[in-house]
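Aggregate trends can hide what the representation actually does to any particular protein. The sequence in question and its structure tokens are set out directly beneath this paragraph.
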Amino acid sequence: MTTDSDEKTSGTGPAAAGTAGPAPARAGWSRVAPLLEKYGLLILFVLLFLFFANFWDRPGTFRSAANLQSVLGTYAVPGVLALAAIVPLVCGQFDLTIGSVAGLTALSTAAVLTRYEGPLWLAVLLALVIGVVIGAVNGFLVAYVGVNPFITTLGMASVITGLITLYANGATIIISDPTLTSLGSASLFGVPQILFALAAVAVVVYYLLGHTPFGRYLHAIGSNPTAARLVGLDVRRLVLASFVLSGTLAAIAGVLLVARNGNANPQVGGQILTLPALAAAFLGATAIRPGRFNVLGTLLAVFFVAFALSGLNLNDVDQWITDFFTGAALVAAVALSTLIGRRRAGAG
């Protein structure tokens, strides 16, 4: 005869049975949870695409080749800006000038080509110089003077907006350079050519951040700047370099913006371009390599937002809904990436 005490001792009673059950479930969840965390955004993207492609008002239009090409081509520029955003974010800094830099370099590119009838190479070179200079000023103020990056780049964005208004005076500059307009509007094998430009930028940023000492140093600074300084890293120089690279990439985005639109509109830039880029950067930090800003996750986030907005716009939703979606995506992305980062830091 088995007594209660024998059951407790031997581990064969109801109490033991009750504790043995959840263990396999917990073990199974512990294996599934990392996969969901890593590929959750990809799964959500597929579900969202299938929803808009098969339901609501205009599924045929959404899944048409023309719409797919339009979305991929249009969001190549925000993709480059999102990659520009993650470079300083990797080392714990913000750059809120990326949209303004893109607007200014778009204007300078169009002005050189149209108003001054200069060659394309000179227009591109000037855009890159502008991006480097603004990035260097941002980096110097943040790294060497010690000004808060949020205040520095927000103020610089306002200065750039003022310069754009001063020069353009509200006028849109239209370009006719066939090489540049072809890059923005033509397709190769059914894929917008401008998407290849985004892919080239992504490969470069992926290599720099993931496979060079420069990238590893930036990640080290973002994880613990004090420790990075103690092991001998020149933190100030590296932070400066991250802002310079961010400004350069934003300048490239400005040139691509002119190529895509065929003009430079002084109203396109600033917050209109910066917020979606930041939303994609933070949302991308919740995917592929959760808790870390990464290129693949960022690109996935860019096109998740792109196709979501395309589906909403094709169904004629009110403008406030798309604005609400973009803002909510940014807030949710920041919250999720912060929580994932804290959880992983605690686990480590």
Summary: The two ends are 49 Å apart (CA to CA).
